[in-house]
Design brief:
The structure is a homodimer.
Chain A lengths: L2 E6 L1 H4 L6 H12 L4 E7 L3 H14 L2 E5 L10 H9 L3 E3 L1 H13 L6 H5 L2 E3 L3 E3 L8 E6 L2 E6 L3 H19 L4 E9 L4 H7 L1 H5 L5 E8 L2 E10 L2 H18 L4 E4 L4 H11 L4 E5 L5 H6 L9 E7 L2 H6 L5 H7 L4 H14 L4 E7 L14 E7 L4 E7 L4 H20 L3
Parallel strand pairs in A: 1-2, 1-3, 3-8, 13-14, 13-15
Antiparallel strand pairs in A: 4-5, 6-7, 7-8, 9-11, 9-12, 10-11, 15-16, 16-17
Chain lengths: 413, 413
């Protein structure tokens, strides 16, 4: 079965908005074994939408289109749909009741533009949107199903999960597929590839391996397609184990896990707590650690000491160390980690200090140079890294390198 | 001129990677007046790539394809290209010298997979990649130009800026276009639309207005297309002023500005400094503020006080206030903002405390309830908000609401 996503919206084509909607839809459907074959992004004009629908009609079994159903005037999609699929726009009393109820519950006034959302083509089946005011629609043309959903991410994803997927599973069950993603940290794509080249070479044809690098990790994704899901899963598990046992120190998790969640689980398991002292990462470590639900169980807090004064006054780093070695130095990062550990009465302290850039670099301490320390109950581990000249990239790499050092510390590695 | 972006990669179609590359390319080209008409995402298989190239050949003048040129074995694009455009793969000595030099400069070993990157179709012009090992390629077929670039974001964007755009400007100059994006905060899309409905109604046909909502702001984008750029720019400026003077309190900036950079500019202008005390935002405010280059000039630091103990011991919030009112309360957030202001010896203190969720909510203090305070030299402003049940969304909304309160405080509003 071939599925196509059509994302409608000028904002996507001028790059003002990144198409996360398409990625979220693709992810939710792939996990259930559905194969997204095409993603097409199209302007919000009648001509282009019609052209994209024609192509999709010729190659896809199921089309999921998003965008263009909101209340503001830049949305012209519904007229185009009536034109393409036939029928006419009809005022839907039951949907209007839903819209009124929606505003009533929130104690908010209803606008005229919201009333317009009650007009729905009579050639469509409605797809309920329980948390928003724009109804979804399903049209069938030749052998292709066309779903149209609003572009608001929360509403759209709610409909994908609760309406589209159950319906597809019921009426168009997927082919067998199994997959596993191995999450690694600490080595680049090409070097990982060399380490597992022989394993990759022996993969059977129906199993594909892909490398997905990003500043926070390199993911290795195995996908097997065939007939029997259980058998595919066994094969995938086998190769997963082979790869993991080849590079055990580099693997930190699988599938949807994040490094911060893995570290959270380790801290909970060992009943240990964590605190941070951040300079160049500017709160980034705390922000990632606290993105995990339940992190208050093990996370004590962070001191973002951006100025030298705050390093001295709040973190009690010695003035002398800063004068002698500079704020970006082994001595200072060590004191930051050890002092914050005591200050928050935590088991582990982690600290960063570096030159985030683009300004502030010198020959001895270039932009991108970062010192990271982890103070454990029995020792303090310090590393110096250089993550290059881009401020954002080098912040995120420092954040994840620091979290990984906590992970390795927790595993006594 | 019609431009199409083709993104090659299975990872995009299973939603494991969000297609930020396409957004970045689209943004860079639109700013220069080029019109991206289509973005197509395609699997890394010969059949699908060929099909996508056929469609692009029939409708586009310029195609920019990315992905599938990396060193690892999941890339099969180059063979497909020779098949489609003709010619054969030839070992390119000068490109091989570039690859060797690349590894030599970094003091890193070269891998066999990198040597393979020196094979280039003789039917292509090379497009130099100064910061990576995969060469870009340009093929011409019928009236269409096809650029192929590696998928690594840094290399790809470097080539877009330094190779593709200059070449297009030279040989295929764009139609006239002017645009302006007005950045607003504090009111939803539908309500903004009502406020400026009459202005929108009087827009001439060649000017389009789009609403681009996100948790951190709602952007209003005006685009005019026509013949004379200066005249279009004048028209856009006129409507921009009309809209801005209708909703002055809601507008915080224009175009590429961010709220955190705008607040940074205000702080620098007024020579004031900022410090934060964060509970539910977990370092998110500090992280945003420090994402701005040069923020060390005005940002003192943050205390992320995630536990009650740290609120009491490090921020000196009174134990009694926490016992009587709870950590999520007006009294506590006020003390946090005022105390952190003194602690960092800053001019302004900003604080948050709330129930980030998904756990921890009660009837009186549901998930999503957040108290935010800004302590200014002469007064402290406190607001209570409810941002709903999603942890990530409600953290980001709290962060930006807090930064906006600092902005309004700086403007005495």
């Amino acid at each position: 079965m071939i599925i196509e996503i059509i994302s409608i919206g000028d904002e996507l084509l001028i790059g003002q908005v990144v198409n996360t909607n398409a990625a979220h839809i693709a992810e939710s459907l792939s996990i259930k074994g559905y194969d997204i074959h095409w993603i097409t992004t199209v302007k919000d004009t009648a001509e282009d939408i019609k052209y994209a629908l024609d192509i999709a009609n010729s190659r896809a079994d199921v089309v999921i289109a998003t965008g263009g159903l909101g209340p503001t005037q830049d949305d012209r999609t519904k007229e185009v749909l009536v034109n393409y699929f036939g029928g006419k726009l009809v005022f839907d009393e039951s949907h209007f009741a839903h819209i009124k109820e929606f505003f009533h519950r929130r104690n908010m006034p209803m606008l005229e533009s919201n009333r317009q959302q009650a007009y729905i083509p009579d050639s469509a089946e409605k797809v309920p949107n329980h948390i928003g005011t724009a109804s979804g629609m399903l049209f069938k043309k030749d052998r292709t199903w066309f779903f149209f959903l609003p572009g608001v991410p929360f509403e759209m994803m709610n409909m994908i999960r609760n309406e589209i997927i159950p319906r597809l599973q019921n009426e168009l069950p997927p082919a067998a597929r199994a997959q596993k993603t191995i999450l690694t940290f600490g080595l680049g794509e090409s070097f990982l590839a060399e380490k597992i080249a022989d394993i990759e070479a022996e993969l059977p044809k129906h199993i594909a391996l892909a490398y997905l690098p990003s500043p926070q990790r390199v993911r290795l994704r195995l996908i097997a397609t065939g007939n029997k899901r259980e058998q595919l899963q066994e094969e995938i598990d086998l190769y997963t184990e082979k790869i993991k046992s080849r590079i055990p120190h580099l693997v930190f998790g699988e599938d949807d896990q994040t490094m911060e969640a893995v570290v959270g689980e380790l801290l909970k398991e060992k009943k240990l707590t964590l605190a941070c002292a951040e300079s160049c990462t500017g709160g980034g470590i705390a922000h990632r650690i606290t993105s995990v639900p339940g992190s208050s169980e093990y996370f004590q807090g962070s001191i973002v000491a951006y100025s030298n004064d705050s390093k001295i006054n709040i973190l009690q780093v010695s003035q002398e160390s800063i004068s002698n070695h500079g704020a970006v130095s082994e001595t200072v990062v060590k004191q930051m980690a050890e002092n914050v550990r005591k200050k928050f009465n935590a088991d582990i302290g982690v600290a960063t200090t570096g030159v985030a850039g683009p300004g502030g670099g010198t020959k001895e301490k270039p932009v991108g140079m970062v010192w990271i320390a982890v103070a454990l109950p029995n020792k303090t581990v310090v590393e110096k890294k250089n993550f290059g000249s881009d401020r954002e990239r080098n912040t995120i790499r420092s954040v994840y390198h620091a979290i990984n050092m906590v992970r390795l510390g927790l595993l006594n590695r």
